[in-house]
Automatic annotation (TrEMBL):
PROSITE patterns: PROKAR_LIPOPROTEIN. InterPro entries: Peptide/Ni-bd (IPR030678), SBP_5 (IPR039424), SBP_5_dom (IPR000914). Residues 32-51 are annotated as: Disordered. GO terms for cellular component: ATP-binding cassette (ABC) transporter complex; periplasmic space. It comes from Natrinema gari JCM 14663. PANTHER family: OLIGOPEPTIDE-BINDING PROTEIN APPA, PERIPLASMIC BINDING COMPONENT OF ABC TRANSPORTER. The lineage of its organism: Archaea, Methanobacteriati, Methanobacteriota, Stenosarchaea group, Halobacteria. The keyword Ribosomal protein does not apply. It comes from the Archaea. Residues 42-51 have a biased composition (Polar residues). Belongs to the bacterial solute-binding protein 5 family. Pfam families: SBP_bac_5. This is Family 5 extracellular solute-binding protein. Coiled coil: none annotated.
Amino acid sequence: MKSAGSATVVATAASSVSGCLGGNGSGGGTLRYGRSAHSKTLDPQDTTSGEVSKVTNQIYDGLIDFQPGEAAITESLAVDWSMEGTDVTLELREDAQFDDGTDFTADDFIATYRRFVDEEYEYHVGDLSSYGPFTLGNWIDSVEADGDYMLNITLTDPYAPFLRNLAMFAAVVLPQDAIEGDFDFATNANGTGPFQLDKLDNSNGKIKLTPNDNYWGDGPNVDQLLFLERGQNSTRTQALIEGELEIIDNLGPNNIGQVEDSDAAEVQSGEGINIGYMSFNQSRVEAFRDSRVRRAISYAIDTESIVSEVYSGIAKQADQPCPPALFGHNDDLSPYPHDTEKAQSLLEDAGYGDGFSFDLTTFQNARGYNPAPMSTAESIRTNLREIGIEVEIDDRQFSDYLTYTSEGKHDASLAGWYTDNADPDNFYYVLLHPQVESPEGQDWVDWDTEGYNTSNRTAWANQEFMDLIEDAQQASDKDKRAELYHEAAQLAYDEAPWVYIDYADEIRGVRNTVNNYEVSAIGGPHLHLVDVE
C-alpha cells in the first residue's frame, strides 16, 4: 500500500486488524476508563473535543481506521480503496449492521456526509462543528453510490490527506434512517462499532456502553465499558491504584511516581502526535497584530522551565506547529530561548515598552498536551510581569472553555491539539489557516468573517503561509510536501502566531488486570480489544 501522499493509493483487506470474522468477543467483566472531563454530547459532528471522540469511536466506525498504536490506516467499513488524482473509489463491507439491526450501505455514508456539510440537504445540521469543512466539505465535489457497497467520490482538487481524513473521528458513519428520522444524536447513539450506548449520565459524569451484538469484527471482550469523570489528577490516580478504575489518561507528572510505585498498576507511554501552545487572538487584541509583540512574548515565556519543572519531563519544548513525529516537522528550528532583554527590546520597538494587559483563558482540567494548565498559566503570568505585561487568568471547565474560545471571546488562550489523521495538514491547515480570504494589507481576519475557521484560535491570516499550505495539500510527492511544510514552519516560527510550548508524550495508567491495551496517539482508544482479568 502506497502512502497517502502518493498520487495513487491502493489498500487491500489483508491489513485489517479486526479482520472480517464477525461475531462477538468472549470474556467478561467491566472496563472502567477514568478521564479528566466528561463529554455531554454523543454527536461526532457537533464537537471538537477529544473527550467526545474517545466515546464515539467505541460506538461508530469510519470507512477507514487507524491501526492500534500506529499511524497507518487500515480497513473498517471500507475493505478496499483507490485514489488517483481527484477520483476516489471505496469498496464497502457487506457484513456490517448498526446496533438496531439495520444493514450498513453506501447510502448511510452519503447521508452522513450531507448532514455534515450539504446546506441543501433537508437534514443538514448547520455549522455545529468546525470539523465539517476541513474533514470533508472543502474537498468533496460529489459522492455517488454504485449499488449498496461501492462509493465513488470526486474531489474538488487533488488532496493528499483525503484518505486519512476518512479515518478521523468526525467522519464516522451515522445511519441514514436516524439522520432522516427523529433521532437525537446528542443523547443517543446507533453505530456499527463494537459497543452500543446503555446510559449517558451527565449529572455524574458517567457513560455506560455494552457490547453491540451486531458488530462485524472481533470483540469486545468485556461485558460493559464505563467512562468515568475524575477531574483531578490525584483523584484519578488514587482510584486506579485502589482498583476503582482500570485505565486512566491525562496522567499528571506528579502522579506518575505513585503509579510506578504501585504493585497494582503500571505507566504505559508512547510518543505523542500533539502540541500545547498559547494562542494570540489578533481579532480581539490590537497589540497581538504586531509580530514583534508576539515574538517578545515568546522570548519572555520560559517554556524550558515549564516543560522541565511543571511537566516534569513528560514533554519536550515545542518550536513549530507540526510535532516531530510527522514528516512536516522542520528539524532546523529550535525553541525560543528565554531572553527577557530581547523581549523588552522588541516591545519597545513595537511601541509597547510600557507594557499592556490581557486575559489568558485556560481550561481547569488536565490535558495530555498540558497536564498542569493552572501552573502553566501562572508561570506565564510571572514571566510576562517581568516585561511589564499584566496577565489576568480566566480559568474554565473544559466544555465551557471550548465554547468560549470557539466564539473568539478570549484575548489569548492556552490550547492544544491531538492529531486527527497523522498528517501535517491537520496542524498547519486546521489550526492556522483561516479558510477565508486574507484581507488586503493585513495578516489577520475578523472573527465574525463568514466561513472563518474557528479552530484557528489566533485569527491569523498570513497569505504566504496560506499559499504554502494549499500547495502542500495538492502535492502528490511526499518529499515536495515536506519541503513546503518546512518553509511554512520557518514562517510560523518567525511570525509567532502562537507561543510554542510543548510536544507531550502519551501517558496512561493501567491496572495489571488489563490485557491487550495499547497506547494510541491517534484514533481509538481501541478498547474493544481489551480484556480484564
